[in-house]
Amino acid sequence: MRKYIAEFLGTFILVFVGTGSVVYSAATASSPLTIALAFGLALAVAIYAFGNISGGHFNPAVSLSMAIQKRLTWIEFIGYVIAQLLGAIVASAAVYGGISAYLKSPTVVQALSGQKMSVSQFVNLAGLGQTNFADGQTLTAFVFELVLTFLFILVISIVTKLANVPAPIIIGLWLSALLIVALPITGGAFNPARALSPAIFVQGKALGHVWVYIVANLLGGVLAAYAANFFNKEVKEVA
């Protein structure tokens, strides 16, 4: 049970901090760098906090890859995915719940020139940190998410087997780097739970497009598992 609670909390941290950095900077200045760093640092902190308990997946695609690599049982995989999805959904609900206070903050009031905006109007305009892509770009988005998820999880699979390597920092920075590349194209999910949770609340095109992220991310995890098995043949486990 401790493993599943750890996965729930770690996924909550990742999604709450990451998507919160998008939502709570919408009325002021935001940049791909700050958003990417928010996701990357949140992931690194979550792995440091809970990695020794559950392995620090916080991502169904990572858990699928680890199960294929036999670093996670299939029973555990099911529990991990349930915990990750719940953590992500609760995180998106928490971000949504904070919008009312955000709209009343002096910075936002000034940015809106005193104009009042309801929570629903804000979400319709700014979103909830959901990932999405332009109409007619389904194939491009699928390929981007597939390739970058593959690279993301392959690095995770390799560095977590290396001794004397600060894996959480490397993984967090790697996520940030990939996000800077993907944000303008797909929003950069690399994680089915992260893609699904805000889309549930926003609905519309984001929810209609979410299948692309789920399929591409999981497939990327599968491919990364087989690539990792090849590269990790001569790599010793961390003591």
UniProtKB/TrEMBL annotation:
Keywords: Cell membrane, Membrane, Transmembrane, Transmembrane helix, Transport. SUPFAM superfamilies: Aquaporin-like. InterPro entries: Aquaporin-like, Aquaporin_transptr, MIP, MIP_CS. It comes from the Bacteria. The keyword Transmembrane applies. One of its GO terms (cellular component) is plasma membrane. It is a multi-pass membrane protein. It is found in: Cell membrane. It holds the Pfam family MIP. The chain crosses the membrane at residues 35-53, 74-99, 139-159, 171-190, 210-231. Its main location: membrane. One of its GO terms (molecular function) is water channel activity. Belongs to the MIP/aquaporin (TC 1.A.8) family. This is Aquaporin. The lineage of its organism: Bacteria, Bacillati, Bacillota, Bacilli, Lactobacillales.
